[in-house]
Amino acid sequence: MICTDLRQHNALDGGAKTLLEDINPLQCCEDVPRTVQPIAAHPKVQHSERKLNTLAPASLQEVAAQELRYRLPSYIVPTHYKLYLETQVHTGNRSYSGSVDIHLDIRQQAKTIYVHQRGLRITSNELYASIPNTNLTFLETLRYTEDAEREFAVFAIRRALAPASYVLHLDFEGELRVDDDGFYLSWYLDANGTRKYVASTQFQAISARAAFPCLDEPALKATVELGIKHHPSYKAVSNMPIFAEAGDLDGNVVTYFETTPRMSIYLLAFLVSDFLYTENEAAAQRVYARPNAINQTLYALEAGVRIMDALDEHIGLPYRSYMPKVDQVALTQFSAGAMENWGLCKYREEVLLFEPGVTTYRAQTTITTIIAHEYVHQWFGNVITNEWWSYLWLNEGFATLYEFLGADMAYPDRQYRDLFNVQVVQRVLITDAAESTRPMTFSRGATFNAILSLFDNVAYFKGGSVLQMFRLLLPDAAWRQMLRTYVQGNEFGTVNTDNFVAALTEAFDGVVSMPEGTDVERFVQSWVNQAGYPVLEVRRSYRGEMILSQDRFYGNKIVNNDFTVWVIPYTMMEQGDSQDTLLEWQWMTSKAVRVPSSTPNDEWILVNVNQAGFYRVNYDPSNWYMLIRTLLEDTAAIPMHSRAQLIDDSFHLARSNRLDLEIALELLGYVRHEREYPPWEAANRVLGYFHGRMRGQPDYILYELFVDTLIGDVFVTLDITTVAPDERLLEKYLRQVIASWACRMEIESCLTATRDALEREVFDAEPVHPDVSAVVYCYGLRTAPMVAFQYLFGKLLGSDNRGERQLLIDALGCANDTEQLSSYLLAAIGGELQVNFNAEERLSILQSVLSSRQGVDALIEFLTENYTYVVSLLGQNALANLVQSIATSTNTLDEEQMLIALLEQLNSVLPASVSASARTTASINLAWPSTREGLLLRYFLERYNFQPVQSGTVLQPDA
After folding, report:
1. How many and how are cofactors bound here (predicted)?
2. Does the annotation list 373 as a binding residue?
3. 74 or 560: which leads in pLDDT
C-alpha cells in the first residue's frame, strides 16, 4: 500500500502500532519531505492503524474473551445467495432497497437461524423448504429479534427444522454509508466541476453484513447470483461478467451477473457509476476510472496483464481456470487503499492511475507492486481463504511476498525483488521487536475492531518475511510445486496452518534435510505461534569452534530468562567464498550449541547470508571488525543484501545494548564507498534517527560533518536534477536518498541545483522530471523567491491527479518562510482561500510542515489559534497525532516551553493521556544527550576528523 499515515502513513490491505517508541522509522522525520520516505506498508495496514489509533487495548482484550458469542453457530451453512439491489445513486440518494434468498444447509435440528446484518431494516421474511427436483415449499413467516451488539438478526422457528436444505427470503432497506465501508456513497468532480456520485463496496473483513443480510464469516463460502437495478446513464460492474441487461417499466435498467464460484462473502464486490474503462479483450482485463481520468489507466492495464501472465506461469494454475475476467477500479474515496475482490480489484486512485510526465518512479513502484499484491490474492485469499481471521497471514503473507516477486517477474529489469529486504523485512524487524507484538497466528475476537486490528505489520510484513525464509530453503521448482499442492488441495475452501504445513512437508520430502528430532510442523509452528523473533549470537573461540545461541530479541533491552526457542535455518559464508556458490542450509534447534569451525582466525564469517532468515545476527567484536575492514577495503566482497543487513542489525543490536555502539558507527562509515541503494536505505534510517536526536544540540556540527563525509563521494557522482533514459530503478532510489541528505545538510551545490531546476520550471516552462521532483520542489523552495511557492500552490490547485497533489502538498510544506507556512496552514482549514481540499489532504497539509523546525514552529502557532477548526474538520484524533509529532520534534528547552504552552492552550480538547505522552516524549528527547547512547555518539564524533574523502581512504583519528 502507499506510505500515507505512517509515513504521514502510510497502507495494504490490512494495524500494529508497536513501532518502537523513539526509533520509529515511519514517523514524520524532521527536515525530511514525506515524499522521499520509502513505502511503509500496504494501504490496508495504514487504514487499520488510522481506524484503531485511539482504541483502548482493554476493549480488545474484553471482546477476545467473548469471541464465541460473536460467532455463528456451526450448524448453519450458506450455499448460495440470490441478491437483488435497487439504487438511485446517480442522484446522490443514499437510500436503497433489496432482497436476498439465502440458501442454507441446516445440519442439525434447529429452532433458530442467525443472520448477520448491520444498520439495515428487514421489511419482510419467508422461510422455504428446498427439496431437490421440486419447487420451493413455503413454511412460515418468522418472528425475529435484532441483536445490535453482535450484529445478528435472530429468526425464531415455530417448529424445529430437521436437518435439510432451506431458503430464507428477506426484503430489506438500507442507506449507502459515508465512511467508505460496506455499500457506500462516494463522488468525484467531472471535467466541468460537477459532482458525480458513485456507489461502491468494501466488505473486508466483516462489512458485507452492512450491505445485505448474510452469513459474514470467511469459512462460510457460497455462490452468489447478483442483480442490480440502476439508472440507464450508469453501469454496474461486479465480480463476474454481465449475464443480461433488461429495461424496467420505470425507465431504469437491471444488470444481471453470472453466478460466482464458491467464495467468501467478503470478496463480493460491485460498483454503480458512470465510469469508463480501457480494455485488453484477449486478456479479459479492464481498468475502470472516472471519465476525466480514463487516460491514466493504460499503465495499470499493461501491468495487470503482464503480472497475471507471470503469475499464471509461476504458479502453474491459470487464473482463468477459476474466473473468466478480472477488472480493476480506481476510486477517489477508498479508505482501504486496495482490495482483492475476486475478479474486481479496487484501489484508491493514487495507487492505480499513472500519468506520464507526472507520476514518479516511486508511485509507479507502488502501483506495480500493489497490483501484484491484489492479483496474488486471486489465488491466496480467493481460491483458498483463511479459515478465520487469526490465520490472516496465510492471505497477506503470500500477497506481500509476491507483490515484489510478481512485479519483478513482470518487469525483471526493474529489480523489484531487491526492495523486499529493506522495505519489508528490516521494517517489520523493528515492529516485531516490541514486547507487545503478537504471534502470526492470533485472534483478538470477532468484532469489527478486533478483526481490523489484525491487519497489521505482523500479518503483512512478518508473514511475507517468514514465507520468504521458507521459500529460500527450497529449489525454485520445489517451491512452485508446493504452491500448486497447497492451492489445488484446498481450492474453493479455507485453510489454516495445518494445510500449509501439509503442503510444505510434501515439498521438503527428499529435498530439505530436517535436523534430527524436528519436523516441518515444529519448524513452522515455532515461527507462526510464537511472538517476536530471535537474535542468533555467533561467538567464535578462534580455537576451531563457534558457540551459537539464540534469545528473543527485544528492541530496548536484553532478557536472559526468556526460554523461547525457534527452529532456525541459517547459511554461512566465509571470507574468500564466491557469491555464486550455493550455500548449504544448517539448523539450530536449541538455545545454544557448539559448532566446529575451520575458518582461519584472521578471516571473517557471515551468517544468514543476504538476510534470508527472519532474525538478527550478532558476532564477537573480532569478527565484526574483520567485516568492517573488508567493507572498507573491498566492499563488493560482501553480498549487497548482507551489507544492508549488517548496517541494520548492528544499529539495532547497539540500541538494545547487545553491541558496542562504536562498532555499529564504524561499520556505518563504510557507506562512503557504497554505490547500491539497499545498503544506503538501511543507512538512511540510521542517519535519520541520529539526526533527529542531534538536531538542536551544540555539537550538531560534528554530526553534519559525519554525514557530509559519508555522502560526499557518492554525491559528486550524481546529477540530482536530471534523469537518464536508461537509468536503473535502484539508481533513482539511491539518488533520492543521497540528494535528500545533501540538501538537508545544506551543501551549497545541492541547494543551488534544486533552486535552479525549480526556477527553470517556474520561469522558463522547463518541467522538472517527475523522478526528481520531490527533492527539487522541496529543497528548491528553501532558497527560491516567493513566486516559486505561489507557482507550486497554483499547480496543486490545478491538478486532479491524486498522486501529484500529494507530492505538491508535501513539497509546499518544506518552505521555510514563516509567512508562506502560515498562509499554507490556513488553507488547510479554509482560511481566506476557501480551497476545496478533501479531509485527507487537509490533514496532509498540516503534517507536511513537520519536515523542518521552522514548519514545526509554524504549526504550533497555527494550532494555538486554530485548534477548534482542526477538531471540527478533522477530529480530535488528528489533533492528538499532530501534537505527538510536535513532541517528537522537540529537542531543546526553548522548544519544550513552546510545546508546554501549546498543551496548556489545548487543555480543554486534548485528552490528558495525550498531553502526558507528549510531555514524556519531549523529556526523553531532552535527556538523550546525557544517555549512554548520546554520550557514545558524541565521543565517536569527537574522536574522528570527518572530512569528505576519496574512495578507499579510512577514517582517521584526530591527532
Report:
1. Binds 1 zinc ion per subunit.
2. yes
3. 74
Residue 174, classed as helix, strand or coil, is strand
Query: For residue 4, what pLDDT band results from cuts at 50, 70 and 90?
Result: very low
Which residues does the annotation mark as catalytic? 374
* Number of residues in the chain: 959
On whether the CB atoms of residues 452 and 13 are closer than 8 A, the answer is no
pLDDT at 636 over 60: yes
User: Which residues are within 8 A (CB) of 765 and not within 5 positions of it... i.e. 6 or more apart?
Assistant: none
**Can you tell me the distance from the alpha carbon of 851 to that of 472, in angstroms, rounded to the nearest whole number?**
39
In angstroms, the CA 943 to CA 322 distance is 65
Residue with cell 492471505: 395
Cα(915)–Cα(899) distance, rounded to whole angstroms?
10
Residue written as cell 420505470? 250
**Where residue 134 falls among pLDDT bands split at 50, 70, 90?**
confident
Q: What does the block give as the cell for 707?
A: 554525514
Whether the predicted pLDDT of 670 surpasses 70? yes
What CA–CA distance (Å, rounded) separates 125 from 140?
9
Grid cell locating 569? 535455518
For the record, the C-alpha cell of 83 comes out as 441478491
CB neighbour list of residue 701: distance below 8 Å, 6 or more residues apart: none
Query: Is 350 annotated in some ligand binding site?
Result: no
Q: Are 855 and 778 in contact (CB under 8 A)?
A: no
Cβ(432)–Cβ(462) below 8 Å: yes
Tell me the three state secondary structure of residue 297: coil
User: Cis before residue 407, ω within 30 degrees of 0?
Assistant: no
Q: Three cell numbers at 344? A: 474486481
pLDDT at 562: 81
User: 231 among the known binding-site residues?
Assistant: no
State the cell numbers at 559: 532478557
Instruction: Please tell me the predicted confidence (pLDDT) of residue 193.
Output: 87
* Angle separating helix axes 661-668 and 640-655, nearest 10 degrees: 150
Q: Are strands 572-574 and 605-607 parallel, antiparallel or unpaired?
A: antiparallel
The alpha carbon of 612 is separated from its chain's Cα centroid by a whole number of angstroms, namely: 21
